[in-house]
Amino acid sequence: MIIGKIKDNGLIQDEPLIFEQGGEGRRGYSLPQWDVEEVEAQQTIPPHLLKEELEGFPQMSEVDVVRHFTRLSQWNFGVDSGFYPLGSCTMKYNPKLNEEIARMKGFTSIHPYQPEESVQGILKLMYELQSFLAEITGMDQVTLQPAAGAHGELTGLMMIRAALKARGQKRRKVLVPDTAHGTNCSTSTVTSFQMIEIKSNEKGIISPDQVARLMDEDIAAIMVTNPNTLGLFEEHLAEIAQIVHQKGGFVYCDGANLNALMGIVKLGSLGVDMVHLNLHKTFSTPHGGGGPGSGPLAVKKELAPFLPIPIIVKEGETYRFSENHPLSIGKIKAFYGNFGVTLKAYAYILSMGAEGLKRASEMAVLNANYLMNRLKQYYYLPYDRPCMHECVFTDRYQEKHHVTTLDIAKRLIDYGFHPPTIYFPLVVKGALMMEPTETESKEGLNRFIETMIHIAKEAQENPDFLRQAPQRVKVRRLDEVLAARKPKLRWTGKNPNNQIPSSQ
Amino acid sequence: MEFPENLLYSEEHEWVRDEGEQVTIGITDFAQSQLKDIVYVDLPEIGSEYKKGESIGVVESVKTVADIFSPVTGKVIEKNLKLKDHPEWVNTDPYGKGWLLRMELKDRDELKELLSSGAYQGIVSKES
Amino acid sequence: MKSYLRYLPHTEEDIQEMLKAIGLGSIEDLFKNIPQDHRLSKPLDLPGPLSEPDLLAHMEGLQGSLGSSFLGGGAYHHFIPAVIQHLTSRSEFYTAYTPYQPEISQGTLQAIFEYQTLMCQLTGMEVSNASMYDGATSLAEAILMAHRITGRKKVLLSQTIHPEYRKVVETYIDPEEQEIVLIPYLKTDGRTDESALIQSLDHQVSAIVVQNPNFFGVVEDLQPFSEKIHQVGGMFIVGFSEAIAYGILRPPGAFGADIVAGEGQSFGIPLSFGGPYLGIFTTREKFIRNMPGRLVGETVDLEGKRGFVLTLATREQHIRREKATSNICTNEGLCALMATIYLSLLGKKGLKELALMNLSKAEYAKKIISRMNGCNITFSAPTFNEFVLEIDGDPGKILERLKTEGILGGLALSKFYPEMKQHLLITVTEMNTRQEIERWADVLAKSIG
After folding, report:
1. Within an 8 Å CB–CB cutoff, is residue B127 touching chain A?
2. Number of residue pairs across B and C with CB atoms under 8 Å?
3. B65 touches chain C (CB under 8 A)
4. Rounded to two decimals, what is the model's pTM?
5. What is the pLDDT of residue A502?
6. Which end of chain B has fewer surrounding CB within 10 Å, N or C?
7. Which fold has domain A361-483?
8. How far apart, in whole angstroms, are the C-alpha atoms of residue B108 and residue B47?
9. Ranges in chain A annotated CATH 3.90.1150.10
């Protein structure tokens, strides 16, 4: 109900944009005192290079700003709010200890160009983290430079191209399974490779004879994910690696799903030549609502000469950066990578140790299999085989009631859960990909299972009501068609309700 | 679902209206129903030439992109500029207001390789 | 009790119950699909596990040491208000995923929409994405975008662009697709050499790329570059690494820039030994479908209420796959939030005042230095908060001497510009007190003399 301008929304409050509040003269900042003579900009810089005012910038008090962003945060759902079973994202608990460590002044206030003697502890940390990641993956050398998994993939393919060039070869193609994450495909194109798709077999994995048929000397590499995005272990990977190697190609592994394998299998022993890791997945650093992440790349020694510079070198007990690597592909980011993120992964690995990491993977796989077994009577399982850390269902049983994967996902929101990944991987129509991770308790899983069972019943008994979901949210079923047809990507000062025409 | 008798069809779900030296091309009712709400259409440059089967543009919905494959070999002579502001016409009137482009035909014999309404319907019922 | 178990809730009973529900006997059975010869027979060789207090103690010992700093060159020591950490520590922000389910991510989405707006206002452009990894990769992606749009094979890069950014651009660009032509700087004033640029300009050039303020801290005049490149039908790309400068500088959009690609670390993001930082990327509306990165758009819900969603995702990797405009997926979301909060606090007047303070402090440093013997300010053009100093003596030894006094005195430029053997880049921000500046000058004078 609305009385005049006052709405009774309870605690789900509306909050305007920062540009729609505050006022002339309000300030929220505090600067150091002026202890030097104030220079007028025009005294030193020609007026035609200067501007008068920052058009449109808000003016808010500190209280305004804190209220604003606090309210915004209350509309969000994070891992700390509840279960977040997004497949292939590994939304595990983010240890608060690591957040505190990352706030230490001796890390946050350090300039990247400080003399190496003043950052020996930091260089040591990075060097050790590299060795931990190499050990976990069974590889030889690691770079911490990539800022995200996709960035790691980019680095990897560039290195492969450089390695081929050093041999005097130029290959134009890359093999990518149909279950691959979109970044694998787009990375291929961005590095000017042509992508050749390999179809997964009826077991949901890629087969050696498929690869053998396609493999030739124009193929630079195969990009695999293991376990793959169906949550299945690529059982033939070692044989496939041999086939690829025999014709001089490389095996790139997308390590996004490493949470299933720590302490259990080393990817390097399967013939993988390079693998990127997602520290913001497997290694518990927070997702941040879209980053920052970190995507270190681990490689076998044949590819080490091509790693981006600078490389951390240890000489006795001293650490330093070296740029003396003539075959390096160069730099893929300014400075040294997302140190503030890699720092948290280092702390996590030390907190867990070898036994903790292995236990984490075991529990992750246990949880996913538990979900899979308890739900398979109610939701169609396209690959009814033991899964690894994630499992994939579809909406096939609900189709007859005209209830889709999207409806199921939106209905889960009403019951306080973040939906699983939907409509991915593409090889499964109407996919519902769930990754519970190891940090979810049995009670939490049971609650989710009961809810999913309840939703399956709703689909039979009350599909119309189900399709109205979500009901208990701040905004309902946003018009994405309108957002794409008439993109409005910034505030322009006009009343939004006049600006956007109605969509019908 | 509509399959106008007076049009020819490709297996990639384009329709072709034979206008003598030139043809008008669009996507079929089946295609638009699969894509759902279309938000944008990317059409080729006027004057550009394409072989049959080449991708000449893209139709986008919110969550998908689909290539438009040239059903004939020829040169683009006109495109439907109104679709920029009204992409939804491809959904509401795919054979009329939602036409995509016109091409000057290089070889009229290619039209014989296209499908009749009945043959195209057969393909569609297999896919559904 | 192994303390890592605080992150792994299952008790032995839980595990047994769950195994029974699955129909398995032991944890080992979960992995029977994996061929035995691939299975690790011994534990990983890793240290730990460390308890919480032990880990804290260990980490404390690894910290870097701080000093009175005059370092810049793409990473800047600015004051970070307490509010920022307080708000970004809210777990609804930092433990959330990418906002693919808009109904439960309106907080993140609205904040990104505000961020996009602020970046457009700051750079004078029409559309911004939700962030790139950093200024360097943002610039590289801008160049790739110009190449996609124009189809041309040459790009003119000013030598006054941050050397690390240029290195990243070189790595990103396929030499078979594009040629990089480096445009030198004028030795007198430190700006990009316009006549050298004109000589290299032709209809094969996809873009001119200039940084403002440039790596030497010098303020470039963007007008002539904009005119020249547009005359030949190419695109004008402007980069920056010190975002605070735009508190007073006229934005690149006002000079006709087509793409602006810069670094936002100065907006409330800690130095953190080089990352995570914030890649800012803005452009014109007509180029929307060619731009990389996520975009948040405004829309309405079923009940007509305003809301925000990710939009135009058809450019991105998860839909366009191999035809995507970039492969970027995870970007620098939380850093963009920090910048948004920072700019909300500073606002219209605060950013301007802060910029003036930076300028004034740097000018003060220049004033004292210019009275000293044995060093002189190299470039005559106006600077913002950084400038180049040429000194008599060995810069390495002089910086050593400053360091023993607890001062990080500047950045030796010889490793980036071999011809600048005697030169240092000096950066002065609002965080350098008058006393600090005077002490720095004092020790510098003694080290030279």
Report:
1. no
2. 16
3. yes
4. 0.95
5. 28
6. C
7. Aspartate Aminotransferase, domain 1 (3.90.1150)
8. 19
9. 361-483
